[in-house]
Amino acid sequence: MKQYFPNIKTIKYEGPNSKNALAFHYYDPNKVIRGKKMKDHFRFAMSWWHTLCANGTDMFGTGTADKTFGTKINSMEWAKMKVDMGFEFMQKLGLEYFCFHDLDLIGDTDNIKENNERMDIIVNYIKQKMKGTNIKCLWGTANLFTNPRYFAGAGSTSSADVYACAANQIKKALDATVKLGGRGYVFWGGREGYEHLLNTDMELELDNIARLMKMAVKYGRSIGFKGDFYIEPKPKEPMKHQYDFDASTAINFLRHYGLDKDFKLNIEANHATLAGHTFEHELRVSRLNHMLGSIDANQGDHLLGWDTDEFPFDVYTATMAMYEVLNYKDGLTGGFNFDAKNRRGSYTMTDMFYAYILGMDTFALGLINADKLIKDGRIAKLLNDKYASFKTGIGKKIVSNKTSLTELADYATKLKQVKYPTSNHQELLESIVNQVIYGK
Ligand code: XLS
Ligand code: NI
Ligand code: NI
Dihedrals φ, ψ of 329, to 5°? Predict the structure, then answer.
């Protein structure tokens, strides 16, 4: 069997003192934290698109990384080569999951029937390849944004024919996801949004997006899909205004259309910051609505206002994110997909390994730190003390819905002294986090 990364051996955990660049320093897959193996906390996934397809092309220049291995882009030979390359990559890194768009697998022939045939061939090929490995599908999706026919959206398009083309791709991508045993199916908005209100029938567009999702649920369930559907919120790019702006907006949409039983959210770090939120804010909103399903683990650049999809290196943010995940009683149904790409200048095959090692180690540190913060207990205690006035007396009546505006007004007028909220102690909290993260 041809090797795509002949110079790279299986990446192993060597611990924080190792200087081996091709080893994990914090990600120790079988280490048990809070009763669960690290690898099961994460279910790390390889993104087919960034890892096997993207070559560094940007708005100003062509690719810098050749990942074709002599095959012709968009040929079936290329498609199969990517499967082989991807499996070698995942096995060497100990990644047990992958995520894909339909077109990542097959390219785009611009012929709908031919694309469907290609999907059947390649999905069978992947299924064969999965045998005897522990590699599984985390989630699948359909690329409803690259082909020019989708310039006005897919579910939100103004052309019923284009809408039908989107339906065909979703059906095929769902077939593939089910065949590959995927845990989830993602709807990222793609071009579902608008650029000018005066030429947009927002009501029809939103209704139609929901209709497409309902049809997808109906079809998915009919072919035995038991996993979750996910919406991946994003506020802008490519459209000026994307309908799935952030977690709150997406949750409202799902509830409004009665889709909330079948859908959860796939939260991407870079999309959170684009929406003017922190990553952990989006995780918190999703989890308290019981809708945190899966995570696109990447990182944006605070100085650039677009989706830079960097591999996460910010341990502080990863710690805050893992604090949310560990405090989420429902647990993720998905995992952590590296929707991330190497910088254009990091173009070697080895850089791809460095990138995944960075991402996996960053989240491992986040997990270790978040566990320490929980065990330390000071943050939870400060939070508990802060809201203590709702534990007894009138506060208890409020939270158990046993009072009224009249009773509260009466209570307020009789107060001799108003008890102010306790201090927020923000600086103390920040010190505690520093001490727990960086202290011995
Ligand atoms: C784009 C999205 C995309 C989704 C899958 O910004 O992050 O990559 O994760 O369609
Ligand atoms: Ni993104
Ligand atoms: Ni994403």
Answer: -65, -35
Whether this prediction's pTM lies above 0.85 is answered by yes
Q: Assess whether the C-beta atom of 100 lies below 6 angstroms from ligand 1.
A: no
268 ligand 1 Cβ < 6 A: yes
Interval between CA 244 and ligand 2 midpoint (Å): 12
Longest dimension (CA), the chain: 83
Ligand nearest to the CA of 272: 2
Residues 33, 358, 373: CA angle, nearest 5 degrees: 35
CA of 339 to the centre of ligand 1 (A): 7
* Closest ligand (CA of 267): 3
262 lines ligand 1 (CB under 6 A): no
User: CB 403: neighbour CB atoms within 10 A?
Assistant: 16
Contact of 157 with 166, CB cutoff 8 Å: yes
Q: What angle do CA 335, 340, 343 make, to 5 degrees?
A: 160
DSSP letter (8 states) at residue 339:
-
Strands 97-101 and 136-141: parallel
- CB of 188 closer than 6 angstroms to any ligand 1 atom: yes
| Residue numbers annotated as active site | 101, 104
Nearest alpha carbon, ligand 1 atom 10: 188
With tokens 């809708």, the residue in question is: 291
Q: Tens digits of per-residue pLDDT, 293-336? A: 999 999 999 899 899 999 999 999 999 999 999 999 999 999 99
DSSP state of 120: H
- Cα–Cα distance, 173 to 185 (Å, whole number): 9
Q: How far apart are CA 285 and CA 290, in angstroms?
A: 9
Neighbours of 390 (CB within 10 A): 14
Q: Which atom of ligand 1 is nearest to the CA of 141?
A: 10
Q: What is the DSSP letter of 101?
A: E
Q: How far is the CA of 246 from the centre of ligand 2 (A)?
A: 12
Q: Which atom of ligand 1 is nearest to the CA of 101?
A: 10
Sign of the CA dihedral with 254 first, then 259, 264, and 266 last: negative
One-letter amino acid of 206: L
Q: Which ligand is nearest to the CA of 186?
A: 1
Q: Which residue has the tokens 């943050």?
A: 379
Atom index in ligand 1 nearest the CA of residue 337 equals 9
CA angle 287, 99, 116 (to 5 degrees): 125
Contact status, residue 92 vs residue 11, Cβ threshold 8 Å: yes
Is residue 439 scored above 80 in pLDDT? yes
User: What is the average pLDDT score of the chain?
Assistant: 98
